[in-house]
Amino acid sequence: MKQLFIIRHAKSSIDFFGNDFERPLNAQGHKDAPLIAKKLLEKNISIDAFVSSDAVRAFTTATYFAEVFGKKEEDILLVNELYHANVSTFYKVISHLDDVFSSVAIFSHNPGITEFVNRLTSVRIVNMTPCSIFALSVNTASWKDFIKAEKSFLFFEYPKTSY
Description:
The chain is of the alpha/beta class. The protein has a single domain, classed as 3-Layer(aba) Sandwich (Rossmann fold). The chain is built from 4 helices and 6 strands, in the order E-H-E-H-E-H-E-H-E-E. It has helices at residues 27-42, 56-68, 87-95, 112-117; strands spanning 2-8, 49-52, 77-78, 103-108, 133-139, 150-157. It has a 6-stranded mixed β-sheet. Helix 2 links the parallel strand 2 and strand 3 (77-78). The longest helix is centred in the first third of the chain and has 16 residues, at 27-42. The protein starts with a strand and ends in a 6-residue tail after the last strand. The model has no long low-confidence stretch (mean pLDDT 95).
């Protein structure tokens, strides 16, 4: 049995006029990311691996989560393909995860992340809001079997539920 936590990056700056890839988190994003990470920790969840888009806002979100879970920034696996990934890219990245990891958090972006989570179980999410988490259990011993494995929805968490 595996667990997967699919996390959209925290709120980013709309006042940033540089390259979208380099868009930073805004003040709300810097507040929400550690708050939601602590909510996961309070659920007695352990995360073995943190996998993130290498875009600044996703990676920064992942660093907050990693810190709360006692990991270092350099423990985060950066995957460029998760930057604006489509559904097939998510499946590919997940199917290549090391089986030593039982519980993985993946950090990415809309619109692909919302489309992806809506393909996994019967639960539908209108929009993966910033710093939201879609959690599921995966009935498999190997990530390579993720696509065909039975998946069960665990919970959906987002910052507004945490205040």
